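Hello everyone,

My group is preparing for a crystallization screen and wants a predicted model to guide construct design. The compound we'll soak is nicotinamide-adenine-dinucleotide. Before spending weeks at the bench, it would help to have a computed complex in hand. I've included the protein sequence and the ligand's SMILES below. Output in C-alpha cell form would be ideal because that's what our pipeline reads.
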Amino acid sequence: MRILVTGSAGFIGFHMARRLLDEGHEVVGLDGFTPYYDRNLKLCRHGILLQRPGFSGHEAMLEDCAALQRIYGAGFHAVYHFAAQAGVRYSLDNPRAYLDANLTGTFNLLELMRHAPPAHALMASTSSVYGANAKVPFCERDRADHPLTLYAASKKANEEMAHAYSHLFKIPITMLRLFTVYGPWGRPDMALFKFAAALFGGRPIDIYNHGKMSRDFTYIDDLVEAMLRLLNRGPPLAEVRGPPLAEDSLSPVAPWRVVNIGAETPVALMDFVAAIEVATGARAKCNFVDMQQGDVPVTFADTSLLSALTGFTPKTQLKEGVKAFIAWYRDYCGT
Ligand SMILES: NC(=O)c1ccc[n+]([C@@H]2O[C@H](COP(=O)([O-])OP(=O)(O)OC[C@H]3O[C@@H](n4cnc5c(N)ncnc54)[C@H](O)[C@@H]3O)[C@@H](O)[C@H]2O)c1
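Reply:
Good plan to model first. Here are the C-alpha cells for the complex, ready for your pipeline.
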C-alpha cells in the first residue's frame, strides 16, 4: 500500500513509518521540523527513514495548503496523521501553536481527504481529552467534555472535525487516543527524557503533586503494533456493518470510531522514577512540588475495544521499556 505518514520526523511518526516500511509498504513522510524541540533529533530520525527504499520524505507545514496539496496529489491508500503541536504544558504559554497546527493543519488535511478519500485514516488523539473525568479506567464511550488545556481542547476538536468529514464524505477514520508513549527516540520534552538527562547530569528532578500521580505508559513498539493491526480494521460504512461489538465506539452516522491505546496499567510516579534509577544506576534527587496547572493526577486506559478489534494489548513491562530507552539515550547522547 502507499501510505502517508504526517509527523514522520516526530517520535511516533518515525517509528510507525519504519514499521510500515518493514511490512513492505511504500511510505510518504511529511514533517515541518518545527523548533518545539531539538530539530537535530528530528533530522536524525528522518535521516534513518531516508536511507530505506520505499520512503520519500517532504519538509512541509500542514498550514501550507499548496505544499500539502502537492504532496497529497491524487491521494493515498491510508493516512496516519501524527503531525501536531504536542505537549500539555507548552499549551499554557503558546496556545496559538495549537490552533495553527492542530486545528488549521488538520482541517487542511481533511479537506484533501474529502476530495480523494483514503481507504482508512488513522489520526492521533490523546488521553488528555478525558480531561477532568474522575471515573477510571477511561473508556471511549465515556463523555469527554471537560478538557483542561487548549492542547486537549484542540485534540477533542480534531475528533469532532474528523467525525463531520467522515459523515459527510464517507471517509473511514479511526481516532487514536494515545496514553503517555515512551521508548527509544523519544521526545526531549517528556518526563523520561528529562529525568534521564537530570540523573546523568546529577541535577534534581521536579516531582509534581508530591508524587501522587500515575500514568498509563505505553511502550512505543506496542503502540506501533496496535496501530498496524488497526490499519485493516477501518470503521465500516453504515450499509455494510455486521453485528456491533459490545465495546464499540463506532458512530451511528459515520465510519468513525475512537480507540484507546494504553497499557491498562497505571504506574505511580515514584515507581517510574525507581525504574529510571535502576536503568541508569543513578540516584534521583527529588524536588517535590505542587501539581501543575492543567495536569491530571491519573490516566488509565480501558483497552477492551482495542483488544476486541485487534486481539492485541500492550504488554511491555515498564522496567523493560525504560531499560531500552536508557540504552538508546546513552548511545544517542554519548553518555
Ligand atoms: N507521545 C505521546 O505520549 C503522545 C500521547 C498522546 C498523543 N500524542 C499525539 O501523537 C502525535 C505524535 O506525537 P509525538 O510524540 O510523535 O510528537 P512529536 O512532536 O515528536 O511529533 C510531531 C511531529 O509533527 C511535526 N509538526 C508539528 N506541527 C506541524 C505542522 N504544523 N506541520 C507539519 N509538521 C508539524 C513536528 O515537527 C514533529 O516532528 C501528536 O499528534 C500527539 O499529540 C502523543
